[in-house]
Amino acid sequence: MTTQLPDDFKCPISLEIMSDPVTLPSGHTFDRLSIQRLAFSPKPSYLFWPLHRPPIETKLNSLTQLARLTKHDSGLRRKLTEWGAAPAVLRCVDSDDLNLQEKALSLLLNLSLDDDKVGLVAEGAINRVVKVLRLGSPDCRAIAATIITSLAVVEVNKATIGAYPDAIQALVGF
To answer: CATH no. for residue 157?
Structure first.
């Protein structure tokens, strides 16, 4: 007979049962090894989904946790940007799975709150976000419009956004 442990026993980073739980001052609990890897690794590989294509549930859980954690943590947002998380998140924005797309957009919105708005644009965020703005579900379209607005705070991004076909029309039509 196997015992099913509650999800609260799982580390939000590794999604495995915690063997050495640590509660941070923010009130979030993680497995000590996972948080040490996150804090001290130059580029933690478990954030960037290897080529073997993990199941959508794994991506969805990771995006959900990262979106929740980055909502109020500018330090983690900066680290994710420095580690190059944008391409992996943008690939999920392209997903046909609406839940995955919405969570990826939520994380992308959080990342757009920081100073590296030009970097997100350089990674190809505008094209993907405009596509969602034109064709996405109502919830995804709302997040996409907010991302475009956030990215447009930087002067050079305004011209880039305006140069994309249908970007302004999609915003106005929203």
So the answer is: 1.25.10.10
* Average pLDDT in the chain: 83
Burial class (CB in 10 A: 0-12, 13-18, 19+), 154: middle
DSSP H helices, 8-137, are: 32-40, 56-70, 74-82, 86-93, 98-112, 117-122, 125-135
Owning domain of residue 123: 54-173
Per-residue model confidence as pLDDT tens digits over 87-113:
889 999 999 999 999 999 999 999 999
Q: Considering its fold, how many domains does the chain have in total?
A: 1
Nearest Cα residue to 91 out of 138, 128, 56:
128
Higher-confidence residue: 37 or 46?
37
User: Which residue from 32, 23, 102, 38 is spatially nearest to 64, judged by alpha carbons?
Assistant: 102
At residue 46, the pLDDT reads 47
The first and second tokens of residue 135, run together, are 């064709």
CA angle 44, 13, 121 (to 5 degrees): 60
- Angular region, 148: left φ>0, alpha ψ -120 to 50, beta rest: alpha
